[in-house]
Design a protein that fits this description.
The complex is a heterotrimer of chains A (873), B (351) and C (335). Chain A has 873 residues and is an alpha/beta fold. Chain B is mainly α. In chain B, 70% of the residues lie in helices and 2% in strands. Chain B contains twelve helices and two strands; from the N terminus they run ββαααααααααααα. In chain B, a hairpin with a 2-residue loop joins strand 1 and strand 2 (15-17). Chain C has nine helices and ten strands. Chain C has helices at residues 12-15, 39-48, 102-113, 165-169, 196-199, 221-225, 231-235, 246-262, 308-332, and strands spanning 25-30, 74-81, 150-157, 175-177, 183-185, 206-207, 214-215, 241-245, 269-271, 284-288. Chain C is globular, with a radius of gyration of 23 Å. Chain C starts with 11 loop residues before the first helix and ends with a helix. Classes of the chains: A alpha/beta (873), B mainly alpha (351), C alpha+beta (335). Chains in contact: A-B, A-C, B-C. Chains B and C meet through helix 1, helix 3, helix 4, helix 5 and helix 7 of B and helix 3, helix 4, helix 5, strand 6 and helix 8 of C.
Chain lengths: 873, 351, 335
């Protein structure tokens, strides 16, 4: 965190000043570890084993926060009797299908009710019909388009009153018992064998966490892409959630799980998504076959209980924001104008489409895939297969110049004159050169004002997209073609100013915040209606412009306001700073501890009160119990803090919504030096693999040719793919050259010299780096052997003031099945002294390695690696 | 370990309690290990540094400018003194030689100083203030004072080339000028010792007591030698004596300096400075011998050879000391070890 | 004569003739909370438009700046050690680790610095050996491996000494004492004589090769005069760099040392806070976790001008000697 979020780290330091213990889990000791109380070295890619070990430690020693677990989580809920655990099936859950290489999640359900994630329900349907009717399209969608339909946080839950719970947590089929069983083999010994964390160290870590998790104390976890960029990325975070729920660390001050995002506004780009499968506010993208009408869409996607029960209001208000007066009840509020999702269009699938020649054009906005995306070579070859490419960035990044100086040009694989791609470079304005807002990981929107005019032809993204849309609409003007209506009916009327007609960013924020029919600003999503009387660009952001005031621009110093600082910026939802904060009070509404008081029930006033905006219906008493058939939030009782969940409970077990299992399970990374000690199932069976073995080959597990673990990361001094740092002298001089970090032990084994050169090789490519030999890297004892890890920053490319090879020349495109994120935090490689070959010899070296490792088209591509499948153990 | 939770801060219904600013973060406090094994209170015996990097910055002066100046300034000052003596004791040939040498050396001194500054205009900045805390400031004023005096004295020796009107004027001011120069000249020969001693350069500062004497003596040797070399043997005697005296004094001071510096004297004995300084000692011996012989039985050849030997001695000494300073500044051990010893001594003393 | 107090305790601004100066301002750099983000280096260069000074990988852990100089007014040092930090538990002892590489790395880097010992800023360690080089470290992985690890970081800066040699020896008056007690170079007056460079006992001030003038930290004199804190302190996310009236900072620092000692970090000590040290105490002082020389600081710096009176005495005496000897030569000379 000190390494990549130094500014945010000041709050960790403040916590340490207040007596907090800081633990750092990382393969290498970073600038965070330098100041931590405890550094826990770990083999990259084994965190679920560690977290599972901690969960087992909690459960087998009865250290869970019992009262919290019983009332606030689904621990007591009874699960469908058809469910089979990985313990039964050697690493698979019930419902595995080889034909689609995915799970059918029917058997994961709660008993007595139909649970489905917004898309999950549809999934099962199509899944089954696909099987029965053999409907190819549905089947195809089932295969390719699974997880992208799990965008919504909502989960439908029918017949909530039928839900069976055993609050003694003794029923063998209740979630709590399933959990116990699932993790019983995640012992300290196993953790040591898998993660390389000595038992003594593990026990110290476990003790630190449990001693600091109870009524009086809380523990927080912070993670960044070190946790997400794995073929089991989502399950990493799930595992942390399970642990935090068991310890009662969610919704309480000093608790939680903090996602440290990689960019200034990544949170914002999922709230108002740059993702292909979501609409603003986590509304799922509608489906071509099952969503003929708004009613079908809403019926399908909205939960009947919990706040997602109001989804129709959110959806209709969004449609009104898009199409204004054109959207009426009669025409289903232009629901048909919305694009329909046809499958997985995630970035890596798009790259394959480029290679296949089916994707013809590509917009890159401040993105540098030739350096920053996994398998940089595949990225470049994909772009070389396009008709046109638009790059909007500050400088001529590698993704804009690969056609004249990329590695493939150097190696002779590509010749510039043969490349048909027409490349447009459009200079972009920096955030200091435009108005706008950032949304940080705390869901806090902070407005920034333009400090200087952008130089030369540089323009803001807002300017670009607004004027692009304006010109397209001008070209289409007068068209009577049905297909042009969605574009022509758009509300595309922002006022502009200045010599370049810069659109008003504040107006965009107002549109996002939403208006009533009379044009006045909305102040809360509770006001959203489903009859078209309100328009709102993103329901969770409703209130950001409450009272006609830009709430996100508030800058009142913390010294002049309440310590929760509600008047600094604005946080969604409803300016809450801590989500699910009802959980900070016990079932009766009293603080769990007087030294951890945050939100509590005030019987005198008959309302919830405290330091923050209650994340709960303000006047719903703790003893409220929903009447039979109650809908939406009214179906949740006074002790259900997790109001966005259909059952109001924190989900230790996920009956639907995930593609790769209801419980986090340790699988080895796609590329691992060792077999999976826990199951016959080596990797995540549902992981996504690219279809292009020719550019994206995988290493065999435990290969002697690629004996070392490689992990990539960022340095404080540079930013991601370097577009914002490698061109700046003041930053470049601080980290002037690509280097890898190796332990003295690995240096001895591989014959590497401090400050000398090394060549790192995988089946995808070969790069050269300078070597830093450092004690901050230590070998780990894993299984029966010592595993050495290579640390590699990924910022570099061939352009800019400081240049070097790109780490992503080495990485592959095996993905997490839920969010399609690449696994670049744990793979295998070889490292050897000296510089890499030049020209064509570079690829020859790689091909030689591929031969020696005996890599074929099928290497590492088996989804199911256990034969004990289907039949219970 | 952290098993014993710190009371820490609290969030009560009325707000925060026991908070603290981030700058009071309790680093290294809660890892649960036996404390106090980190920094040994007693400093370690072995010499440590930051990756072997220099602690102080070595002088940025260029040797061919500043080392030359240390030498030339000495010659200029010493020769001015001899010129005055010759003037008073009526030795016209000696006076002529000394005056010309003095003026020449002074001119060259100014030239190399300006060369090191880069632009002549920059020398003028030296005369903005008079700063007793800056030997360079004092030196600049001394040199500025000396220059016109030795210049006019030298002009008198060349009065034949001047228009008559000027020649008369010069003739009248030459002697007072020349004599006045003796008030400044000796300081010009010795202040250069303070000039380099008044730095953090270990070998220079360490010898701050001896350097003025050493440089003065060296200057006398050079001036005497050079003047003797260009004066007819008949009148060269005082120059010989001055040269020999200066050289002998320098040789006597040399071991004293080494005793004072102790281990820190190493840069004087090794590498380039070591070679230059031992060469200088040989030149001294040769020069002394030859001039001594010449004073017994005056000989132009002996005077020239011996005189140049002493001149070389002085030049080698100044260059030797200059390079020794660079070396002692560049290597951190010459800065750290003596200071570390000083600390341990005081520590022992207080114990 | 504004700066004739060459040693001992002193309050520089009044001593320099300011009638009613503001309190003496300075830095307290608490290296125990430094996270090595180098924001201070960047903020300093941005605010003072100090040029970039070399892109070379130095191999000094994450330090690729090297040392302070004309074009680096803040420098973050990185030191990896096989020693523990207080009660911190880095777990190395439990891992299958061999001997430490820190010693050898120091040698490799030092060797690469050559004769000049990296005395010039940004000096490449030169320790690059391109091409296949199978040699490698000699030590094998053995049982008697390293058991400790700590990573020290420290942001260095001009010390703004109470008795500043650079200021004292400056022949032009270009270096001056501000009303805040800091030491600043007036670039329009500096004539590039370079005298201050070897005079500084900390090796801070240095000459810019292109124009020969000297440059160093001004403690953001321009910001101070309008009530702003220096750029580096402003940018520091963890308050490792603390700016304020020197008296307050010294109190705070003393308290901080007690706090750390109480926490088991017995190695914590202050550097430069003592008004009785060789430079009369520094305006920028530090909390260190090891001996000063480990960070590249002189252990016991002394302002060279402390001995200047003696130097002058010897100079005068020596001058007298030269005069006497020179004239005596005539007496001794027979005709």
């Amino acid at each position: 965190m000190a390494e990549c979020h130094p500014v945010g780290f000041q709050w960790v330091m403040e916590a340490k000043a207040r007596g907090a213990t800081l633990v750092h889990v990382d393969p290498r000791l970073t600038r965070t570890g330098a100041l931590a109380d405890l550094h826990v070295p770990i083999r990259a890619g084994t965190d679920i084993a560690l977290l599972g070990g901690l969960i087992n430690h909690v459960l087998s020693n009865g250290l869970e926060f019992r009262e919290y677990v019983v009332h606030y989580t689904n621990a007591a809920t009874i699960v469908n009797e058809d469910f089979r655990d990985t313990e039964d099936l050697d690493g698979l859950f019930s419902g595995w299908r080889d034909d689609t290489a995915s799970y059918s999640t029917d058997s994961w359900q709660y008993e007595g009710v139909r649970v489905a994630s917004a898309a999950g329900k549809r999934e099962q349907g199509t899944g089954q019909t696909a099987r029965e009717s053999g409907d190819e399209r549905a089947l195809h969608r089932h295969v390719t388009g699974r997880s992208h339909e799990h965008g919504s946080h909502g989960s439908a839950l029918e017949d909530l009153h039928n839900l069976r719970r055993d609050e003694t947590l003794e029923d063998p089929r209740c979630v709590f018992q399933l959990l116990k069983r699932h993790y019983r083999r995640y012992t300290p010994q196993t953790v040591a064998k898998i993660c390389g964390i000595p038992e003594e160290l593990f026990r110290q870590l476990a003790e630190t966490i449990t001693v600091n998790s109870n009524r009086d104390r809380t523990t927080a976890w912070a993670y960044a892409v070190g946790w997400t960029q794995h073929t089991v990325g989502v399950q990493y975070i799930r595992a942390a959630s399970v642990l935090q729920l068991l310890l009662g660390n969610i919704g309480r001050p000093g608790g939680g799980i903090l996602a440290l995002r990689g960019h200034a506004s990544i949170q914002g780009s999922t709230d108002i998504p740059t993702l292909y499968n979501l609409l603003p506010g986590y509304l799922p993208m509608p489906h071509p076959d099952s969503h003929g009408s708004l009613d079908a869409y809403v019926a399908d996607d909205s939960a009947e209980t919990g706040y997602w029960g109001n989804m129709r209001s959110y959806a209709v208000s969004l449609l009104k924001a898009y199409w204004g007066d054109a959207a009426t009840a009669d025409n289903d509020f232009c629901f048909d104008y919305l694009p329909r999702i046809t499958g997985d269009h995630s970035t890596y699938r798009t790259v394959q489409a480029q290679l296949d020649g089916t994707c013809k054009g590509y917009f890159l906005n401040g993105q540098n895939p030739a350096v920053g995306s996994a398998n940089a070579r595949a990225q470049r070859l994909g772009m070389a297969n396009l008709d046109w490419l638009v790059v909007r960035d500050f400088t001529l990044i590698e993704s804009a110049t690969w056609w004249q100086d990329g590695s493939e040009i150097e190696s002779g694989e590509l010749r510039t004159e043969d490349i048909g791609t027409e490349v447009f470079f459009l200079p972009a304005a920096a955030h200091t050169e435009k108005d706008g807002s950032f949304t940080n990981t705390q869901r806090m929107l902070q407005w920034h004002h333009k400090a200087v005019e952008p130089p030369g032809d540089a323009r803001s993204d807002l300017w670009f997209w607004y004027h692009l849309g304006r010109r397209i609409r001008a070209k289409l003007a007068g068209s009577t073609a049905e297909r042009d209506r969605p574009v022509l009916d758009l509300t595309w009327d922002y006022s502009t100013s200045g010599p370049h007609q810069e659109p008003s960013a504040e107006e965009v924020l107002q549109e996002i915040n939403g208006r009533k029919a009379d044009g006045s600003n909305l102040s809360s999503y509770e006001e959203l209606a489903d009859d078209g009387s309100t328009a709102c660009g993103c329901w969770i952001y409703c209130g950001a412009y409450a009272g006609g005031v830009n709430q996100t621009a508030r800058r009142k110093p913390h010294t002049e306001q309440h310590w929760v600082a509600p008047e600094w910026g604005w946080a969604w939802p409803a300016n809450r700073r801590l989500l699910y904060n009802r959980a900070s009070a016990d079932p009766q509404g009293r603080p769990w501890s007087e030294r951890k008081a945050y939100i509590w029930w005030n019987p005198e006033q008959g309302r919830w009160t405290g330091h923050d905006v209650p994340d709960f219906q303000p006047t719903k008493p703790p003893d409220y119990r929903p009447p039979e058939g109650a809908k939406r939030q009214d179906a949740l009782s006074g002790v259900d803090p997790f109001i966005m969940q259909a059952d109001g409970k924190g989900w230790l077990y996920v009956p639907a919504g995930l593609t790769d299992g209801p419980l986090p399970t340790h699988y080895e990374p796609q590329e691992s030096p060792v077999p999976n000690l826990l199951y016959g199932q080596q990797q995540n069976p549902a992981r996504q693999l690219s279809r292009r073995r020719d550019v994206d080959p995988y290493h065999p597990a435990g290969s002697d040719v690629f004996p070392y673990v490689l992990t990539t990361y960022r340095l404080t001094e540079h930013h991601t793919a370097g577009g914002m740092s490698r061109w700046l002298p003041y930053l470049s001089e601080l980290q002037p050259e690509l280097f890898c970090e190796v332990s003295p032990e690995l240096a001895a084994v591989a014959g590497l010299d401090h400050l000398g050169w090394a060549t790192i090789v995988t089946a995808r490519g070969a790069i050269e780096t300078r070597v830093l030999v450092t004690d901050r890297m230590v070998p780990v004892r894993v299984h029966d052997r010592t595993v050495y890890q290579v640390g590699l920053p990924y910022h570099w490319g061939r352009n800019g003031l400081t240049t070097g090879d790109s780490a992503n020349e080495l990485t592959h495109m095996a993905l997490d099945p839920d969010v399609h994120i690449q696994e670049v935090k744990a793979l295998t490689c070889d490292i050897r002294p000296g510089r890499r070959p030049r020209g064509p010899d570079r690829r020859r070296l790689v091909e030689e390695y591929v031969r020696r490792a005996g890599i074929t088209d099928t290497t590492g591509t088996a989804h199911r690696t256990t034969d004990r499948h289907g039949e219970p153990a | 370990m952290s098993g014993a939770p710190d009371p820490g801060s609290e969030v009560r219904r009325d707000g925060l309690h026991r908070t603290a600013p981030g700058r009071e973060a309790r680093i290294g406090a809660r890892g649960g290990r036996r404390a106090g094994r980190g920094g040994e209170v007693v400093p370690p015996a072995e010499f440590r540094s930051y990756y072997g990097r220099a602690v102080i910055k070595p002088p940025v002066w260029k040797a061919h400018n500043i080392a030359s100046y240390l030498f030339l300034g000495g010659v200029a000052g010493g020769a001015a003194v001899l010129a005055a003596g010759a003037d008073l004791t009526g030795r016209p040939d000696l006076r002529r030689a000394a005056r010309l040498v003095s003026a020449g050396a002074t001119g060259l001194s100014l030239t190399v100083l300006v060369a090191d500054l880069g632009r002549p205009g920059r020398f003028v900045h030296m005369l903005r203030v008079v700063k007793p805390t800056s030997p360079m400031s004092i030196g600049a004023w001394l040199l500025s004072g000396l220059s016109p005096l030795v210049a006019v004295a030298a002009l008198d020796e060349a009065s034949g080339l001047l228009p008559r009107r000027w020649a008369g004027l010069v003739g009248r001011v030459a002697r007072p000028g020349g004599l006045a120069a003796t008030a400044i000249a000796p300081a010009v020969t010795t202040y250069t010792g303070a000039l380099i001693a008044d730095t953090a350069v270990p070998v220079w500062h360490g010898a701050y007591r001896e350097l003025p004497y050493l440089f003065g003596a060296s200057a006398l040797a050079a001036a005497g030698g050079l003047v003797a070399a260009v004066t007819p043997p008949g009148q060269a005697a005082p120059a010989r004596i001055a040269g020999v005296a200066g050289s002998v004094a320098a040789q006597v001071l040399d071991p004293a300096v080494h005793r004072r510096l102790g281990a820190a004297a190493e840069p004087l004995t090794r590498g380039r400075p070591g070679r230059l300084l031992s060469a200088s000692r040989w030149c001294s011996r040769v020069g002394i011998a030859l001039l001594a012989a010449s004073s017994l039985r005056p000989s132009r050849v002996l005077d020239v050879a011996g005189g140049l030997a002493l001149t070389a001695e002085s030049a080698l000494t100044k260059f030797g000391w200059f390079y020794a300073g660079i070396d002692s500044a560049a290597d951190p051990k010459y800065t750290v070890v003596p200071q570390r010893d000083r600390l341990t001594d005081t520590a022992d003393a207080t114990r | 004569m504004t700066d004739n107090l060459l040693e001992g305790r002193g309050d520089p601004a009044p001593d320099s003739g300011y009638p009613q100066p503001p309190p003496r301002m300075g830095f307290f750099t608490d290296t125990s909370v430094c996270i090595g983000c180098k924001a201070c280096e960047v903020a300093c260069k941005e605010w003072n438009s100090v040029p970039e000074d070399g892109l070379s990988l130095l191999g000094m852990s994450y330090d690729n700046t090297g040392m302070l100089g004309a074009d680096t007014w803040r420098h973050v040092a990185f030191i990896e050690q096989d020693r523990p930090l207080g009660r911190q538990n880095n777990a190395v002892a439990l891992m299958p680790a061999g001997p430490s590489s820190t010693g050898r790395n120091q040698e490799v880097v030092a060797a690469g610095l050559g004769e000049r010992h990296g005395a010039q800023l940004g000096t490449d360690t030169g320790a690059v050996r391109p091409g296949p080089d199978p040699g490698g470290p000699t030590q094998p992985v053995t049982a008697d491996g390293r058991t400790e690890l700590r990573w020290l970081m420290a942001s260095d800066v001009c010390k703004h000494c109470t008795h500043a040699a650079c200021l004292d020896v400056c022949p032009t008056g270009s270096l001056f004492r501000t009303e805040f007690g800091t030491v600043v170079v007036q670039e329009d007056i500096c004539n590039g004589c370079g005298y201050c460079v070897p005079a500084c006992p900390y090796g801070v001030i240095d000459q810019r090769k292109d124009d020969g003038r000297v440059w160093k930290c001004t403690l953001c004199y321009d910001r101070l005069t309008v009530g702003q804190e220096p750029a580096c302190a402003k940018a520091c996310p963890t308050e490792s760099i603390q700016f304020g009236p020197l008296d307050e900072l010294r109190e705070r620092a003393a308290h901080r040392v007690e706090q750390l000692h109480g926490a088991g970090v017995t190695e914590a000590r202050l550097y430069g806070d003592d008004p009785d040290d060789g430079v009369g105490g520094t305006g920028a002082f530090f909390l260190l976790l090891d001996e000063p020389e480990v960070y590249g600081f002189p252990p016991d710096p002394v302002v060279t001008t402390r001995d200047l009176p003696a130097m002058w005495r010897h100079t005068a005496l020596a001058a007298l000697g030269v005069a006497v000897a020179g004239l005596a030569a005539f007496a001794g000379a027979r005709r």
